[in-house]
Structures are given as C-alpha cells and as structure tokens.
Amino acid sequence: MSYSLGLDPSLRGFGWCIHNSEAVGSERVFAKGRWSTSPKSIWVERYVTLREEVKNLLDKYPLISAVGVESPPFGEQYSEGLYALFLMVNEALWSRRKDVVYFDPGTVKMLAKINPAQRKGKMFKSDMIDAAKADTGVGRWNADEADAYHVARFAARFWSLVNGEIQETDLTPAEYRAFAREHTFTRGERAGQTIQSGALFKEGKRFFKFSLLPR
Fold first, then answer.
1. Dihedrals φ, ψ of 212, to 5°?
2. Are 67 and 100 in contact (CB under 8 A)?
3. Distance of CA 4 to CAs 48, 162, 190, 193, Å?
4. Burial tier of 199 (Cβ tally within 10 Å: 0-12, 13-18, 19+)
5. What CATH number corresponds to the domain at position 152?
6. Which of 18, 126, 128, 129 is at 20 to 30 A from 214, Cα to Cα?
7. What SS3 class is residue 158?
8. In 10 A of CB 46, how many CB atoms?
C-alpha cells in the first residue's frame, strides 16, 4: 500500500493529505492541503464544491490506491451538516472506485498515540500537529492537514492488513485496538462469546471495497 489519501471533511477547513508508506521522513508527505468554502455561499454549492475538489484530487493523483476518511461524530456532537458532507465525499470516492475506511475522531486520536497505555490523557490539536511533525520531520502543519495526515497514515496500515501485506503481530497496540480487536468472555452469562470490535470485522460498515464494484 504505497499512496493513501486521508480526508478530514469540514465546510470551513477540509484537510487532505497523501501519504507514501514506502518513504521515510518528509517524503512520506507526498502532498497536502486544505479546502474552504464561504458560509455566504448557498449551502448546496458548498457541498458540491467540496465533492468536486475530492474528485479532482483523485483524478490528479491516480496513484492513490486507497482512502481513509474521518467520519462524523455521533451522539451529542452529531451534525446533520457534517454528515451531508460525508455523504458527498463518499459519492466522490464511489464514483472513482476507491476503497475507503472510516475512522471516527476519537479513533484517529487514539491511533496517533501509538500506545494508549503509555500515552495517557487527551490528544489536542497541538498534540496531533506535534505527532505529524515527529513522524515526518515536516515543520509546518495546520490542524486540518495534520488530522488528514494521520487518517492517511493509518488508512495505509489498515489496508495493508486487509491485503495481507502486514500481519496482526506487526500492529501497534493502538492499531490492534482499532483494526483487529476481539474479546472472548470467560465469565458470566456471556462466557464463550466473542466480540469482534475491530474495523477489520466490519466490511460494509466501517470499510468498503468500492474498487470491486462494476463501473
């Protein structure tokens, strides 16, 4: 899995980054950027504009083999507007038949910790930027680009696991928890039952192989 695209959708600050998993240092960042739309524009124009930006990026860089997208938060932070943008982004990915995996915001931050047992506490925007700097050596990031970088970086790892390029034993503690975690109950009424919570077990919900669909 060489080139992966990470997307952090937002109407005001839509971060994107292309990650090269075969490179080291600053060359891991093949390209990055940020799109923005004006709240003065009619609402449908903002969504269509960003959908077309995604399509144009995929057309400009056909070497992108797979994509990761930060999915909308649910619960108290759920936003109909952000979910609408999420749908438009996925229409762009589907139209170009790019495989996609979704990471919610909490999972992206957890993955950036590498080992949650050792890195306690919350990951703030500054922490995500520092993690991107540490992994790449690139000194200048905004928060949207940094989040997109981490999404791209771990999307590459996820798809490498799906494709058999790496094994579960190669995963960091955070990656195992997000991608492949399963737990078997040993006590109580649920003894013997196995819960598969990792994204690897959720095809059709947390990841889609759009590349296999007919055009």
1. -90, -10
2. yes
3. 23, 14, 39, 35
4. buried
5. 3.30.420.10
6. 18
7. helix
8. 21
Report the alpha-carbon distance of residue 170 to residue 159 in Å, rounded. Answer: 13
Residue 46 has pLDDT above 70, yes or no: yes
Exposed, middle or buried: residue 31 (CB in 10 Å: 0-12, 13-18, 19+)? middle
Sign of CA dihedral 127, 161, 106, 49: positive
What backbone phi and psi angles, to 5 degrees, belong to 4?
A: -125, 150
Residue with tokens 């790496």: 166
How far is it, in rounded angstroms, from Cα 210 to Cα 215? 10
Q: What percent of the chain has pLDDT over 90?
A: 81
Q: Please report the pLDDT score of residue 54 as a whole number.
A: 98
- DSSP type of residue 203: B
CA atoms within 13 A on the CB side of 123: 23
Residue 200 and residue 176 in contact, taking contact as beta carbons nearer than 8 Å: no
Q: Side-chain half-sphere of 101: how many Cα atoms within 13 Å?
A: 29
Give the range of the structural domain holding residue 123, as residue numbers without chain letter.
Answer: 3-212
Residue 4 bridge partners (DSSP):
19, 66
Q: What is the Cα Rg of the chain in Å?
A: 17
pTM as predicted: 0.92
Per-residue pLDDT band at 194 (split at 50, 70, 90): low
Number of domains in the chain: 1
